Amino acid sequence: MNFKMFNILSTTGIMVLFLSFFGCKENLELENENLKKPDELSASSNPKLTTTVGSNTQDFYELKDANAEKTRLKMGSPWSDFDPTGFYLAPNTTMQIVVKQLKGTKRPKLLIGTYSRYSTNPNPQEFTLTADTNNITSNEYGGLIWVRFRASGSPSSRVRITFVSGHISVPTYIKNQTTAADWTNQLNSFTQSPDVVLIGDRVYQVYSRERALTTQAQDNNYVLSKADQVMDVEDAISGLDSSAPEHEPNIHQRILMTENDGTGWMAATSYRTSYVTNAASAPFTSKIGGIDGWGPWHELGHMHQQQPWKWDGLGEVTVNIYSLAVERAMGVTPSRLKRDNVWPLVATFLADTSSTKNFNDNAFMPSKREWVRLSMFHQLWMAFGDNFYHQLHKATRIENPSVNTDEEKMRFFMLKACNISGKDLTVFFRKWGFRVNENIYTEISALNLPQPVVEPSTLSEQ
Q1: pTM score, two decimals?
Q2: Which 3-state string (H, E, C) describes the chain?
Q3: Model confidence over 165-183: pLDDT tens digits?
Q4: Is residue 7 very low, low, confident or very high in pLDDT (cuts 50, 70, 90)?
């Protein structure tokens, strides 16, 4: 509105127009947001994350509980169910925020600190927010500020959080949005936060300010794109294609990848994957898109790993079904199994005709036993392709089998493998030393399936 119009309208008229316009505008925004489909809000509880992160006012929606999604997808760990705010709270500091209820009655939680970022403080402080003013005081560690807004039932609430005082801006890189000049400016301007945040479509990456300075010249878009690709490929091999409600992708679309200042190497557990400083070049540089990216492919694979066919001893085996899928997508050749000379060990194991040979008994396995066991799963991929694992994951979600013992899990896997492939895999499983109750082999025989044209156990990459 220009100054001439101000001269024409009375002060009262101006106020009426002002309140009417902006009041209607907010109501219209609320109405339009309420009309959105749930899947439009699935990437984050802050659907405008990439435009409002770092702003003093941000809106958040309830999403399905991460543990409920874990159960639906038959995975072992809940995914990250929190969003970055773009702010940091220093140790022993009080911040003030105001929470406005826009819809429903439930309110989110505020997290101070990042899962697994620091070995002395591996879990964040968690505060349940109240309506109106909240004064939050950090412990002796402080940390990045996150918002967790998960529903115990059906998601129905929405809030607006205004950061009033005490918070500190964090260098935040957003894929395909932040420029190199922007990033440099943030690193030069926001110097009080010890950590930085990078936001992709499928990941959050958190690491030290020192690392950000030393990698400042790298192409962060490339790194984030490759991390996103890892997630997309692992979702794809998991059959998460939205073809049915059971096969909708996890509503929490991003997984935290964080640098860890402790010892060890890499890890995956509830809400995050972590990488010690000496291993952090693999996830946080261009290495993630090549042969050295296996580590993060593997850790993100743990976050996809289905449980009903993961019997004892397969924790570090079936996870690499996802790693191998990423390896193919990244164009890395030869495969890890060939590169590490696993196939001769496989041949030795398969040539053993002992009646007591046991796939699950380490005493019968040659060296590199996890890789030898992985080769059995890879032979099924070589024989039947990606679709075999698409259908296995889908059947697991649909049937939701009640399996508790190793034999119950093996039975489920064996019968599903035969049904999905359309072949009687008795010879294959016996050659691999699947020592189960003979009734399971009787069940396979009763399916009346043909023998494979090529016995899968004969396949290799030699």
Answers
A1: 0.91
A2: CCHHHHHHCCHHHHHHHHHHHHHHHHHHHHHHHHHCCHHHHCCCCCCCHHHHCCCCEEEEECEECHHHHHHHHCECCCCCCEEEEEEEECCCCEEEEEEEEEECCCCCEEEECCCCCECCECCCEEEECCCEEEEEECCCCCEEEEEECEECCCCCCEEEEEEEECCEECCEEECCCCCHHHHHHHHHHCCCCCEEEEECCCEEEEEEHHHHHHCCCCCHHHHHHHHHHHHHHHHHHCCCCCCCHHHCCCCCCCEEEEEECCCCCEEEECCEEEEEHHHCHHHHCHHHHCHHHHHHHHHHHHCCCECCCCCCCCCCCCHHHHHHHHHHHCCCCCCHHHHCCCHHHHHHHHHCCCCCCCCCCHHHCCCCHHHHHHHHHHHHHHHHCHHHHHHHHHHHHHHCCCCCCHHHHHHHHHHHHHHHHCCCCHHHHHHCCCCCCHHHHHHHHHCCCCCCCCCHHHCCCC
A3: 999 999 999 999 999 999 9
A4: very low
